[in-house]
Amino acid sequence: MPSRILTRLLRALLPLHTCDSITGDxxxxxxxxxxxxxxxxQRWYARQVWSFVVAAPLFACAVRTSLxxxxxxxxxxxxxIAAPVYxxxxxxxxxxxxxxxxxxxxxxxxxxxxxxxxxxxxAGSCMLALAVSLILYFGLRHPPASSxxxxxxxxxxxxxxxxxxxxxxxxxxxxxxxxx
Length: 180
Fold this sequence. Notes:
Number of domains: 2
Number of strands: 0
Number of helices: 7
Shape: flat
Largest sheet: none
Structural class: mainly alpha
Distance between the termini: 46 Å
Order of helices and strands: HHHHHHH
């Protein structure tokens, strides 16, 4: 069987109306290939999933949106570090604003709730990694590590709600367009 992680990634990123047919076709081809070469079939499946990820409109949408917010977050982190007293308030605010925005935008553009949440999780993880790296590199005083998941969890909760709203808004716009 193909990797569950790759299959889940593919299902999260594909539009819902094509998800079952594409994953079914890939699974069928994988089974045929695995009869002769099991490792080759795994490599083939990984390449196929990667090609869908890179070619998917979601990927371009998510990367473009996430990079914009990541740049704003990096600037706010730089401002917090350069301040006379380290205060991460602006960076936390940008973080809590970015994740729901990314979730809404990606879900709205792709009409896929899971895509919005996935993009938010990936962007939030990158932002969190940057913040932790900067704090450790500059030796800044920071809240205890046990409090780090709190803004992340709040941001992801807001992102999930925003992704749901984005998907619903896309469906309403599509319904209104079709009824004209």
